[in-house]
Amino acid sequence: MTWIGWPGHSWAETASDGFRVIRARPLGPGSAPQSPTFVSSYDGTVPGPTLRITRGEDLCVRVVNDLAEPTSVHWHGVRLPNAMDGVPGLTQAPIAPGTSFDYRFRPPDAGTFWYHAHIGAQVDRGLYAALIVEEAQPVDVDRGIVLMFAVPPGAGGSPAPVLVNGSLRPDVPVRSGERLRLRLINATTARGLSLKLEGHAPWVMAIDGQPTEPLLAREGRVGLGPGSRVDLFIDATREGGTVAPLVEGVRDEQPVARLVYQRGGEARAARRSAPLPLPPNPLPAGIDLKNSLKAELKLGNARPLDLTGTPLFTVRRSRAVNLGLHNPSGQLQHAARCRRDRTRCLRRRQSRQVAARGPSAGAPGHRNGRLVRGGLARSCCTLLGNRSRPALRGQPTDQAA
Asked: What are the pLDDT digits (tens) for 46-88?
């Protein structure tokens, strides 16, 4: 299998001690950091360099802050030691201008993840990039393609245009007969996406980095909440010289990218059968609900984190938590994420198709975030208390329920 070298460049600078060095810096001459149109970058590109390792390997990254303000890096969706989570004031001190911080951990799961700044609006201003943890076993695809979705800093209009890998409506070259693995990452902080690939039947293979039973996306559409990821398998069945738009939206679809079929011979002549599931990650198949801790949270009451305040609950490591999430708002959806831990929805869908009419598409399995619709009395999830001081983050989206 080969990977398309996009977005950004695939590898960061490597120091003599083996650490990959990534520099957070302004992207060219521009306005002051307080300006809504100020753009930052990792290593001069938006998105920044895609980091790739194989499951079982250590990830060693040195982040150098060349900005005029503090920063930090959060490893979105990765189960990792508390000290490496990158939340200023909670797990580490901010990285001051002119200094650096070393992150070193071994991701236990293969899958699609991403990393981004965790101070203020820095992620919306360009400080984000993909982290790919490869499976140790071969996966039956010809190529993998990372597609990161974001909105321009300070973008006006409603809705704001969607950038794909930092570009407006890019072309993605493909060959007839290929089986592609599309790794979709929603790098926005408050926008849900509903994506549809015209003329194709994508298989949903993983959600938030965790494998699921292969699911055919209804009408080729999948939903992505803020920060979420979906892995799709696509069989490129069209002829050379044709295009397939990737559109976003439900009522008012807008093209955000195109698959462009190259002219020439097919990569593989025979049509493939349905894909097998991806290799499983080391997560429990069952959860002990009988002995779980029960807690309730109203998302409308979310407020800035107070490190001196009373925690929502205290739980013994490895004990399950049955958390009821309430969204009292009549319209807005709320995205809720528990850092470093995985959640599992207690209500399973029985259909083998993902009816993704909006950004709330899902499937049974482990996730690191949930979308809770407005007016919903309860959306029960179970999260595994396997790290110290996990933080639960709530964020209203810009879409109605």
From this structure: 999 999 999 999 999 999 999 999 999 999 999 999 999 999 9
> The domain 2-134: what is its CATH number?
2.60.40.420
pTM of the model: 0.84
pLDDT in tens, 183-200: 999 999 889 999 999 999
CA angle at 76 for the pair 73 and 80, rounded to the nearest 5°: 85
Architecture, CATH, for domain 143-261: Sandwich (2.60)
Name the residue among 311, 303, 333 with its Cα closest to residue 385: 311
Check if the beta carbon of residue 361 is closer than 8 Å to that of residue 355: yes
* Token pair listed for 202: 């994508």
String of b and e for 2-35 (b: at least 16 CB within 10 Å)? ebeebbbebebeeeeeebbebbbbbbeeeeeeee
- Tell me the average pLDDT across 367-393: 52
Q: Domain 293-400 is of which CATH architecture?
A: Sandwich (2.60)
For the stretch 240-268, pLDDT in tens is: 999 999 999 988 899 999 999 998 867 66
Comparing C-alpha atoms, which of 34, 23, 126 is closest to residue 66? Answer: 23
pLDDT for residue 104 is more than 90: yes
CA distances from 144 to 77, 222, 232, 233, 367 (A): 20, 18, 10, 9, 22
The per-residue DSSP string of 139-165 comes to: -S-SEEEEEEEE--TT--SSSPPPEET
Q: Are 230 and 222 in contact (CB under 8 A)?
A: yes
Average pLDDT, the chain: 81
Rg (CA), the chain: 20
**Residue 38: what pLDDT?**
81
C-alpha span between 253 and 330 (Å, rounded): 25
The residue behind tokens 């060095």 is 21
The answer to whether the beta carbons of residues 85 and 73 sit under 8 Å apart is: no
Output the DSSP codes for 311-346.
-S----TTEEEEEEEE---SSEEEEEEETTS-EEES
Comma-separated ranges of CATH 2.60.40.420 domains in the chain: 2-134, 143-261, 293-400
Residues 233 and 341: their CA atoms lie apart, in Å, by: 26
